Amino acid sequence: MTTDLWDKRTRIGSKLYGTILPTILKQLRAKTRELSHMKVHKNNFSVEVFGLYPDMTPWGHVLDLKSHTCSCGEWEMTGKPCPHALAFILMFLDIDRPTFVHEYYSVERFRIAYSGSIPRMTDKTQWPEVDMSFKLLPPPLKRAYGRQRKNRFKASHEPGLRKQQRCRKCGEFGHREIGNCPFNDDPKKRQVGLF
Question: Which of 34, 44, 165, 174 is the most exposed place for a label (fewest CB within 10 A)?
Answer without folding.
Answer: 44
